[in-house]
Amino acid sequence: MTDYDSTGVRCMMLRGGTSRGLFFEAADLPARTEERDDLLLRLMGTPDPRQIDGLGGSTSLTSKVAVISRSEHPAADIDYLFLQLGVDEPTVSDRQNCGNILAGVGPFAVERGLVPVSGDDTSVRIRMVNSDSVAVASFATPQGRVEYRGDVTISGVPGTASPVILGFTDTEGSATGRLLPTGQVRDSIDGIDVTCVDNGMPVVLAMAGSFGLTGYESHPELSEDQPLLDRIDAFRRKAGQLMGLGDPAGTSVPKTVLLAPPRDGGQLSTRSFIPVQPHTSVGVLAAISVVTGMLLPGAVGHELTADWPTSRIDVEHPTGHLLVDVVVEDGAVVRSGVVRTARKLFDGVAFPRAGSPRE
Ligand code: NQM
């Protein structure tokens, strides 16, 4: 049996989109789920709000893990299991995907020699194990190496980097099994009109006004409003039940997204809660799910879509914009995609802190 405390674990840290995660080859981690999760929590420094004795960055956006292996699925090259770790609670959840961390998966697979490079641009077919759906990531690989430098800017990340283009084929009903998990395009929770939708991420949509908000509040304004966060928590728990997700306590889905008309040249404004703390920007698959939901006649916010372009939708969020490519026809998703960037931050051996994370 490997003594990870003394050998450490081979690990790469990458920024994927506006998130940061620890990337592992599955074979480098314990095979037993409980042992694996215990090790990951100790590496991340969870539970501790500062994660001072681990590699996490004190937020859910920097407490993420990707477990990668070659795929046996005929439509995929790589399997990607996403795990969301808690920060101050010792939780590890496989209930959601993460489209931001996904941006680092193709580059990681090339770095580790798990897929061949194919000329100046490599495409990797990635099975998102959490939802058993496939995404294709395309990125530059001149001279057989991943190119991280480039001229693409994404809101929420300083500087520029090389693009990673993500295309999704079959994300409908990721965790819930259905694009409209309640079977209806509109429901009511605590007297508030909502649309529950899952095109890669289970989200509950409501107008910001129905929470007494403008929908343009800053991240600190939202994160410091404890009564609002308590209300969001109770609200998303009810939404989770309606969506067939059971009791969402301790899991990271569903997310709540509050909508408002655009005010910065985009097509809509969003404030997301993941699942209780506000997001500094917006999740990739969350944004895709929001846009998909709004495009359905009868959905909350559908009236905002009247003059939307046919595909590229500009989603405003607290720190900028996220452009998603979503096409819906006759209530079904034809395609969805997004442009992200990624960067390798370190490659080496990580050492877990001692003790049990659950004591
Ligand atoms: O929705 C955060 C993130 C995410 C998820 C979260 C994401 C997605 O920004 O695909 O990217 O929802 O907890 O990394």
Automatic annotation (TrEMBL):
Keywords, alphabetical: Isomerase
InterPro entries in the cross-refs: OMA_tautomer-like, PrpF-like
Gene3D superfamilies hit by this protein: Diaminopimelate Epimerase, Chain A, domain 1
A GO MF label: isomerase activity
Family annotation (Pfam families): PrpF
Annotated PANTHER family: ACONITATE ISOMERASE-RELATED, ISOMERASE YBHH-RELATED
Family label: Belongs to the PrpF family.
The protein, known as: FldA protein
Gene source species: Paractinoplanes toevensis
Source taxonomy: Bacteria, Bacillati, Actinomycetota, Actinomycetes, Micromonosporales
